[in-house]
Amino acid sequence: MRRLDDEEREQYFDHIIQSLDEQKKEAFRESFLELHPTDQMELFRSLDKTKRALVYQYVTADEFADIFQGFELDEQEDFVLELEENYAAEMFNQMHADDIADFLSELNEPHAKAILNAMDKDEADDVKELLSYEQETAGAIMTKEYISIRATNTASDVIELLRQEGPNAETIYYLYVVDDKDKLVGVVSLRDLIIASTEEKVEKLMSSRVVSVEVHTDQEEVAKIIRDYDFLAAPVVTSTNELIGIITVDDVIDVIEEETTEDVGEISAARGATDVNVSAFTAAKKRAPWIILLMFFGLITAEVIGQFEETLEAIVLLAVFIPLIMDSAGNTGTQSLAVMVRALATGSFEKKGLLNTIKREFGTGLMLGIICAVVLMILVPLLYDSYMLAFIVGISLFLTLSVATIIGAVVPVIITKLKLDPAIASGPFITTVNDILGLLIYFSIATSLLQYL
User: What is the Cα–Cα distance from 446 to 307, expressed in whole angstroms?
Assistant: First the structure.
């Protein structure tokens, strides 16, 4: 099984598809099963429904399970409808419980129940347990395919156990030690087991300082723990320390991708609509609430400008710099928002503390304000022949950028304290708030100095 480069993959795919067209089962199986699962998925996606039907005939349900669980959920929903009932049931029996649970959670209840009823009872019970846990918790993303051992086992006992049960486990690099009540008491790495004497007891090899996660722990916290400890897997326990599953690093990668997608959606005010596969109607429905809310904020912006109508009538040239003030405030605030959301997500915020983080962002805003103000005080007199106008615009931008960084940094922290996702302080929201404040600062200064213009 190997990963092909682009040119080699294309040629090899043509060869495999030719075998399929000519209905040469053995030639197809030999070539297709040699491919890496990622390449198998890519080839399968390129086939039409007639050719896919031949693949189901030539590839066993056990073999297709490895391919199926790698597809995106929307692809799985399409392909499962093409499978014969017994074939589908056997395929699900061979898949990991967490992958099945992820798939079934996206289906309507009758369809999900039909699949569970067709599966083996033990396999279906594991999946039902995972589905019973709240979404985005350790219990919902854990797998039941793990190996547990006893402290009284010898190294040779465990090696023999691995030969029997290892092929069905999601990972065997970590072996978890439990007592008679299935409570987690230790962990042994495969490396320590292999190099140990065959008669060495597990209790002599294991580490009793086990880092575990409780079943109701948020998946983001689980990802942080696995990242911080550089684990390949982490055990999941109940409140009484009973081992009930494990979470592997590949599941954590999926969590990180999911959380990142959520954050991007929140920051851009497009949560639930970042997937290009969703319909235009669905995307519009997801985005509309924010757009309507921001439209009302836009009316506030217009009202602010209206309150300073006399100032604008007196010096029309002030209107030229409105976009500059608004854009600079919004962009700077969004940058601070991104920095703070990232700091909260990675845990670096806790290390630095609120005061240090705000001081850092405020300092950044001050320096950006000084740089922009100096540039404007040089350019504006050259373009508009007015040093007072340059001073008004420059000092307004200096104060606006300073305030914008504070707002961009503080708002996510406040939202976090309210037990909400900090990314909900979306970029458009921060931008609009800073636009309003920037205009207030700009026109207040311009009005107070109007007599000098």
Answer: 13
> Alpha helix (H) ranges present in 230-279?
249-267
Q: Which of 236, 233, 258, 216 is nearest to 170 (CA)?
A: 233
For residue 174, report the phi and psi dihedrals to the nearest 5 degrees.
-110, 135
CA distance 173 to 159: 12
Alpha-carbon distance of 216 to 74, in angstroms, equals: 27
**CA geometry: angle 284, 286, 292, nearest 5 deg:** 75
C-beta atoms surrounding 331 within 10 Å? 16
DSSP 420: S
Instruction: Phi first, then psi: give them for residue 277, nearest 5 degrees.
Output: -80, -15
Residue type, 46: S
Question: Edge-to-edge strand order for the sheet containing 184-189?
Answer: 148-149, 174-178, 184-189
Rg (CA), the chain: 30
Least trusted range by pLDDT, from 11-25, 391-405, 413-427: 413-427
Q: What is the pLDDT of residues 194-248, one digit of tens each?
A: 999 999 999 999 999 999 999 999 998 998 899 888 888 999 999 999 999 999 9
Under 8 Å between Cβ of 69 and 93: no
3-class secondary structure, 105: coil
What is the SS3 assignment for 68? helix
Show the tokens assigned to 359.
Answer: 């001081």
DSSP output for 276-304: TTS-HHHHHHHHHHHHHHHHHHHHHHHHH
The whole-model pTM stands at: 0.63
Cα distances (angstroms) measured from residue 189 to each of 25, 171, 177, 201, 315 = 42, 11, 11, 14, 76
Per-residue DSSP letters for 115-166? HHHHS-HHHHHHHHHHHHSPTTBHHHH-BS---EE-TT-BHHHHHHHHHHHG
Cα(408)–Cα(15) distance, rounded to whole angstroms? 56
Q: Name the pairing type of β-strands 174-178 and 184-189.
A: antiparallel
d(C-alpha 129, C-alpha 133), whole Å: 7
Concatenated DSSP letters of 3-49 = PPPHHHHHHHHHHHHHHHHTT-HHHHHHHHTTB-HHHHHHHHHTS-H
Domains of the chain as residue ranges with CATH: 6-137 (1.25.60.10), 148-259 (3.10.580.10), 280-452 (1.10.357.20)
Q: How many residues does the chain have?
A: 453
Place of tokens 């929201």: 429
Rounded distance between C-alpha atoms, residue 426 and residue 341, angstroms: 10
Work out the number of other CB atoms within 10 angstroms of the CB of residue 159. Answer: 16
